[in-house]
Batch of 4 targets.
Target 1
Amino acid sequence: MNLFGSHINNDAIYNFIISIGSKILFGGAVLLIGIFLINLLVKATKKVLNKAYNDVTLISFLSSLLNISLKLLLVISVLSLIGIEMTSFIALFGAAGLAVGLAFQGTLANFAAGVLILIFRPFNVGDQIKSQDLSGKVKEIQVLFTVLETEDNKRVVLPNSGIYSNIILVNSCK
């Protein structure tokens, strides 16, 4: 007799532990193989992008975005494979994403504009540009902001959403 006053079948407990243990081991193996394959895919993508674009900023951004996205999908898939119901977690992630998106609305606008600047290249590092009544030589193009150096050697940091949503006058050095 056990503490709960009922007889527990040892075979049922053994089968339950074997069933759960095998799912966890299988999920762990899938996770390890998945991480290995994702790393190979990210390295191959970096090589292809290096040959196609040879732009360190864009390659770094795209490869880290691919890496994080694929690993998040892998973890969700492995948890589902183990037997954990993922619908409520995905709904929770969606709600949290909406809340974070609303909280960081300006930052996300700068991020989106930075991605568009990096992809479409309306100007490059070294170009002389004028935007928002500010002008200077482009020193850096980051994902959230662009750094200009003015004629009087001042550093101006402009948010990318402001640059991308306004008229940009570009004097290219190339």
Target 2
Amino acid sequence: MFVILQKEGILNAESVCKNCLWATQNGSPRWQSGKLSCLECVGKSESSQLELYQCQMGFRLVNIP
């Protein structure tokens, strides 16, 4: 599950992505050929070591297994 990280807290990606042109019809980040086409990996978080992503709109996301 992808979530958006903000200073104020964590948001469900579907609540933000549902109107994004790069997201799927159900508001999820788009996968194409096994890769995320709307997100770019920008490293790992210091505290949890989860991979951090940045979307085309500038939001930071993390994939929580």
Target 3
Amino acid sequence: MSLDLGRVGLWTFAFDGQPAGLVRESAAEIEKLGFGALCFW
């Protein structure tokens, strides 16, 4: 199985210590903006 993450992704530390619900909502919005990948620790 191949996973196409696109050409542009986003890497951020802005979600550190944030509630899971906020991170989920933000990730959905970032996906709608066309980013293929989101990396956070």
Target 4
Amino acid sequence: MKIKALLTATACSAAFALPTTASAAVFSFTSTLSGEQHTPAADTDATGTATLSVDDSAQTLTFSLNVIGISLDDLWDTLVEAPVGPIHLHDGDVGANGPVVVPFAFDLATYSDTATGFSLLVSDYAYSDAAATSGTTLSFANYLADLQAGGSYINVHTDAFNGGEIRGQLAPVPLPAGFGLGLLGLAGLAALRRRA
């Protein structure tokens, strides 16, 4: 009886220790941006780093970008005034150009000057609003699948490089190393419990 109680307590503890990604339905992605990744490559020293979180229950996106070597004044004036903004997420594989899916307009996102460039932050952005602004017909489910397959990128458009100065492919953040072992341990505990 003590073994059964111990196994139950251990299984409960392990379940609470597991990451909540699956239950919360939040997927994370990262990107490092450079001119070399642009198609065609842009001759620039500017760089950037970005994170994207996608909640597949709420169908919302939270995006953060930090850029070094480009100021807010350098962003392409034509797109600063446009609904799609000078920074957006495209649907497309490495080395291929694709359509805008998620735009970040100046009146939607928080653009801020930094000492070395600028940053952008937008929280809980409804995919349906993004799709309406960009005009994409790509469903949320299909875009999330493309993201998970590495088929989406960030593009930063500037006055000097209207087509995009820096670009970065979004890559899924892998699950923690112990995640698979935790699931394996829970399966083992369940098997032992059935025997008791």
